[in-house]
Amino acid sequence: MATEAQGEAAAHGAEGGLAFHPMDQFIVKPLFQAYDNVVALGEPGSGGEGLTGLTESGHEVALTAKQALEVEAGGSVAINLFEAGIQQVHWYTITNVTLWMAITVLAIVVLLILGTSKRATIPNRTQSVAELAYGFVYKMIEDVTGKDGIKYFPYVMTLFMFIVFANFLGLLPMAFTTTSHIAVTAVLAFAVFFTVTILGFVKNGAHFLELFWVKSAPLALRPVLAIIELISYFVRPVSHSVRLAGNMMAGHAVIKVFAGFAAIAAIAPLSVVAVAAMYGLEVLVSFIQAYVFTILTCVYLKDALHPSH
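User: That's the sequence. What structure does it adopt?
Assistant: Structure tokens below.
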């Protein structure tokens, strides 16, 4: 249980060892966590180990030795029911992911709508950033897909802005990086996959299948290449989503590992330098990953619009 893990971590910390958990920052938690008071001790486990207590609502939870002593002395101990494994996250639960996705959308609205509401010939800083983002994505679509792809600019622009804002907001202290979760990036990637596939058949009909038939290759090799192209096509949403989530998760985990070593006085200065360097790299990676996801979307869109090799 989470409480047992925390107790063990505290025990290790008391012994002078390092106690940090770099993956804890990726745990999806309810935004509104429930608490309950432990009012009585439960039955001890085998050998007298594994202290437990009973809450006011009748739940049995694990206790540390200190908490058990407080209850035994007649006091009560407040227990986080989520950390105790009692409060569960369901599909309808408002979580930290929900909160930071909402903040991401709000930040985009502030930049692109409120920031450009008073447009001027000489733009202010907010308007300049919004115009730079607009021009950057527009040019990307035009260069990759041609003029035919411009009509899909709103969708591609929305993808880019959501990912880049989610990545940058995740760098704030105590923030949650929504794009570090495969559940989020997989939805984005499969949305792109189904959109371009449906668009390809709508625009080209059966001719869309020419995407898998490499006409420039020798005839004997074409069936083999068609199978390879078909497999690679269906792998697209997997690589599209895992690349983004993996890069964001790895970078944040490394930062927390370096930060954990700051507790050792001998290497604390080196740890601080390493954290600063990794943080600067993560700022760059946050933008690059948003760019890579978006330009691959443009490439897939080009395949749907012009499937012939």
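The radius of gyration is 26 Å.
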